[in-house]
Structures are given as structure tokens and as C-alpha cells.
Amino acid sequence: MTKYVSRWAAMLAAVALAFTLAGCDDTPTEGDSATDGSGFVGSYSTKDTQGNDMTVTLDEEGSASGNRAGDDLTGSWKDEGSTVTITWSDGWVTKITKDGDSYSKTAFKDGQEEGSAVPAEKTK
């Protein structure tokens, strides 16, 4: 009798595990991708290290594009909580940090901060 109870208990546990795993859905939904967790997807207006106008656009796929002093920029970005780190193809790194309702931008070249933080405005 104990042998049959053990088998039934094992089968029930296996069925329960199967239902639990079947209910897990790792498919991201809109607004739930790895890069869109903090709402950084969109466009920003800011200044470069020389004080010239700069735009940055971050898409849902983790790609970044921008324009700085007439030069088109391409790169990728990663959400790091309240900061997004953008790695540009030319070696520069831009960080946009959200603090409450405002944003700031810092730039890095060869791992060293260039200039100081400047305001950034989310335009889209």
C-alpha cells in the first residue's frame, strides 16, 4: 500500500511541477523588455562636451543613435537602474541619469569623465 501511495505522490508532484512550469511565460511584453525597464526608450536633447547641441535616441532593441555637431552617432545602450549607459561606435560613452523628473548627461572618453554633467531633456 505504501508503495502505491509513494508512486501517486510522485506522479502528483510531477504533474504540479509541469503545470507550474507551463504557467511561466518569459516572453517580454511591450514596456517589459530588458532595455525598457526604466522607461529610457525615447529621444533626448542635451549638449556635448563642447556645449554644442546633441540628440540621443534609444530604441527598444538596445540600439542608440544620435547627432552631435552635425556628426551622426551609432551605438548600443544598457539600462542600469536610474542610469542608462550608451556605448558609441567611436569609443565615447554617454550616461544619462534620471533623478526624479529630470535627466542629466555625462560623457566619458577612455574611461575618464570629460567635462561635467549637463541637463538632458526627454523629448519623446
Key words describing this protein structure:
single chain, 124 residues, alpha+beta, Lipocalin, eight-stranded antiparallel beta barrel, signal, Lipoprotein
Give the structure's gist in a few sentences.
The chain has 124 residues and is of the alpha+beta class. Helices cover 18% and strands 48% of the residues.
Structural notes for this entry:
The protein is an alpha+beta fold and 124 residues long. The protein has a domain of 81 residues: Lipocalin. The chain has 1 helix and 8 strands, in the order αββββββββ. The protein has an 8-stranded antiparallel beta barrel. The longest helix has 22 residues. The N and C termini lie far apart (68 Å).
Instruction: Please identify the top-level CATH class of the domain at 42-122.
Output: Mainly Beta
- How many strand elements? 8
- The helix content is 10-25%
Helical/strand content category: alpha+beta
Count of DSSP-assigned helices: 1
Q: Mind describing the biggest β-sheet?
A: 8 strands, antiparallel, barrel
The helix-strand sequence is HEEEEEEEE
Q: How much β-strand is present in the residues? A: over 45%
Radius of gyration over all CA atoms, rounded: 23 Å
The N- to C-terminal Cα distance equals 68 Å
* CATH architecture assignment name of the domain at 42-122: Beta Barrel
Major beta sheet, strand line-up: 1-2-3-4-5-6-7-8
CATH fold call of the domain at 42-122: Lipocalin
Biased composition (Polar residues): 43-55
Region (Disordered): 26-80, 101-124
Organism: Methyloceanibacter methanicus
Signal peptide: 1-24
